[in-house]
Amino acid sequence: MKRLMISSFALILAAGSALAAAPKTAEGTGGAMLTNAEGMTLYTFDKDTKGVSNCDADCLANWPAAVADAGDKAEGDFAIIDRADGTKQWTYKGMPLYTFVKDTAAGEVKGDGLKDVWHVARP
């Protein structure tokens, strides 16, 4: 019985941690937007295609991918893709999601409209 309780508790903790990493909707500048679990704004990149990230190397230095953990589960419009580098990345309606290194606090949107190819991800 004790072993069953410990296993059930571990399963509940694992499920909770997977949900904590999933993107979410928050109110911000310009209305509803997508954020990561820490409240940092998520962005889309016009040069991506559904299910494929075209941001790598130098691009990722400024626009880190919204990385999904091994235990994360896709739900609704949120899915997880395999990146060319072997990591997993969150998508929204098929479009890969990123944060921006110059956003230093939750809710900042310093990357919105940058180079006319980066946009706040909105539901």
The low-confidence runs, each spanning 5 or more residues with pLDDT under 50, are 1-20
Average pLDDT, all residues: 86
- Whole-Å distance between the termini? 44 Å
What's the overall geometry?
globular
Domain count: the total is 1
The H/E string reads HEEEHEEEE
How would you name the oligomeric state of the polypeptide chains in this document? single chain
Strand order of the largest sheet: 4-5-6
Kindly provide the radius of gyration, computed on alpha-carbon positions and rounded to a whole number of angstroms.
16 Å
Q: Largest sheet at a glance?
A: 3 strands, antiparallel
Strand content: 15-25%
GO biological process, one term: alkane catabolic process
Signal peptide: 1-20
Protein name: Lipoprotein with Yx(FWY)xxD motif
Keywords: Signal
Task: Please render the helix and strand layout as text.
Blueprint: H1 2-21, E1 24-28, E2 31-35, E3 43-45, H2 58-62, E4 78-82, E5 88-92, E6 95-96, E7 118-120
Antiparallel strand pairs: 1-2, 3-7, 4-5, 5-6
Organism: Paracoccus suum
Keywords: Signal
Protein name: Lipoprotein with Yx(FWY)xxD motif
